[in-house]
Structures are given as C-alpha cells and as structure tokens.
Amino acid sequence: MLDFLHTVTYEGMSIFTSSNNPNIPTQLWLAARFLLVFAFLISPSFIGKKINAGLTFVSFGIATALFIFSIFEWNTFPTAFVTGSGLTIFKKLSEVGIIIGFSLSMVLLNKHRDKFDHKVFLLLQFSLLLNICSDVLFALYLRVNDVVNFTGHFFKVASYYAIYRAILEIGFREPYLLLFKELRETSERKDEFISIAGHELRTPITTIKLCAESLKRKMAKYKDARGLETAEKIDELGTRVSRMINDMLDLNRIEVNKLEVKEESVRIDIFLKKTLVDLRRSFHSHKIELLETSPITVSMDKDRIAQVISNFIGNAAKYSTVNSPIQVKQFSSGGEAIVEVQDFGIGISQKNITHIFDKYYRTRGGQKRAQGLGLGLFLSKEIIELHKGRIWVKSKKYQGSTFYFALPKRK
Length: 411
Hints:
Elements: H1 2-8, H2 23-42, H3 53-72, E1 81-82, E2 86-87, H4 89-111, H5 118-138, H6 147-173, H7 175-178, H8 181-221, H9 225-255, E3 264-267, H10 268-282, E4 287-292, E5 297-300, H11 302-318, E6 325-333, E7 336-342, H12 350-353, H13 376-386, E8 390-395, E9 401-408
Parallel strand pairs: 4-6
Antiparallel strand pairs: 1-2, 3-5, 6-7, 7-9, 8-9
Helix pairs in contact: 1-2, 2-3, 2-4, 4-5, 5-6, 8-9, 10-11, 11-13
C-alpha cells in the first residue's frame, strides 16, 4: 500500500493535488522501508513458532494507517525532500538507519541458517544485500528523477524478485525445502534409527527362537505337555516379532527407494510346494492345502515371493477359525503364472477392499488374536509391482477371501 501511494504521488501522475511536491513520495518511501526493515529484523524471532496471521495483518495495517495519516492528514512525518536543496538530514540519517537495519538482519538470519534450506537462505541474504545497495543509492541522489534514484529502483525490484524466488516459487513448488526441512531431517534420523534398531533386535530374537526350539525338543522328550505348550508359545511370539521387525525394515527400504528384488529363473510350482512345507510348520493351526499346480517358469526373487505367500496365508489364518482350510492354487492364464490363496473366514466388506493394500490398514471385526502392523499386504503389493506383476483380492462379507498375485512368464 505504501509503495503504491509512493508511486502515484509522483509529479505527473495527476492523481493527488499535491503530486507536484516531491517530499510526499519520499516520505512514503521511507515509511515503506521502515516497515520492511522492521519485518526483517523481527522475523528471525518467529522461526519455529506459530504466527497469528490475523494479528499480524492488523498490526501492520495499523502501522500503515498511522504512516498515511501522519503524511497526508496530520503533517507530523518529518520532511524528507526539499525542492532546490534535495534530501534532508532526516532522510539521509533514515537511510543510514535502514542500511544498518538490513545489515543487522543479515547477521540475525545467519545465526538461524541451519533452520533454512541452503538455497532459500542464500536468496534471502541476497535480497537483503540488494536492499542495502538500493538504500545506499537512495541516500545519495539529488533529484527524484536522476540516474542514481533510477538505478536504486532496479536494486529494489531485484531484491523483491529474490524474495519471490525464496518464499513463493520455492515455497510453493518445492515446499519441503522451506517448510519441511526439519521434518525431512527428522525422517532421515527415523530411517536410520529403524535400520539400526531392526538389525540390533534380530540377534536377541534369533537367540530366543533357538532357545525355544531347544526347549520344545526337551519338553517333547520328557513328555511335558504344559512345558511344550509354553515353548511353542515363545517360538510363535518370537516368529511374530521377527516378522514385524522385517516388515518395518522393508517399509523403511521402500520409503528410501532401496527395496530390491534379485530375480532368477524359477519353476514356480516346485517353489510353491517347498515353501508351503515350511509355512505349514508356522501356521499349524490351519490346514494349508495345495490343490492345483502348473509347471511354469518365471523370473522372481524367491525370498520376496515367499514373503508374499507367507503374508497371504498369515492373513488368511488371522481372519478364519482354527483348523479351517486354507486352499492354495497355482495355474497359468495367458502370459502369466497366477497364485491364489483362499480362506473361509469372515471375509472383507466392499468398503474395506478398496483399502486392503494400503499401508497400516487393517480391517475391523477380526479375531482378537489378529495382530501386526498392517504392513503385510502393503509390502506384498510393493514386491509384486517390483516384479512387474499384478495383485488383487476377491471377497464377500462372511464368505471368505481369495487373494491373488500374477507374475509374467519367463520368455
């Protein structure tokens, strides 16, 4: 507002009756610079704090109104320019004060440089430097339309462009640079923590499972049913925690684009039979049946695809009754090898199906024993997509669910 009035009050604009008085636009220039340098000086103290936008707008609005009234109505704003003699002492001293203010702003901003993206910080400092150059020229001109004054306006426009680049363009197009720098750093520390913690936890969990296996053998030898049940429970819990740790590590790899698949040529029917032998030991509470296979060769990462099958069967076990069957089929369709895992549990509503492969999503109404982080199906989707395959589900409420994944045949 003050800059606008500064422009339209110049001689020749023919908007104000007093537009032939160069003192008024010079006073408005000083008022605008006072507000600008004040904003730069106080802004570092608001870094990391929530700003009340309404209060800020009202405060600057009141200050603007006071400047306007002091210049146009009350005539209390000191004289800044006298025709014939040029700039007054007040104008020159004000420009020196403004230059000092911008210089101090550069120092204060430098103390908080770690709070800014490097590119944003440099642009803000460059804007302040341009403002200083501009005010040096505005303290030296003799006439309002001489070359020195003219050049000073170019520095001012350049300083505003630097602000635009720092706050508007970068802030809107690349907001994480300006608004989420600390969040990004926190996320990086979180990723590092998960990676270290996950690997550190694997050792004690492995030891617990080995001890549980040894205890199971001893309890079976001495025919101690209660001890055997306890050892099996320890082993089951160890397996569950191990899966959760692996899921967290895989999620972390996905978020940093480091989840990899090591593909090799595999007969999927043979692979599936071997994988189910191991899974039957882990999910002994259900009858895992292999109903159909087809001799198809695909390119895949055996460990990752085994993880997907384990997630499908684990999900089926969670949401179906003990000793109910889980049926597995593997067949060929077109240029794909398809694996399906069917359960006869509580099923999934149509509302939940659309979110079933989302991160951290878990359907409601499952059995109390169902536990986990809600990552299994999300990770399965990511793994299958890395194999350039497809994944989907068919289900009806209370009629069970069938999960599918398809991998392209090896050419």
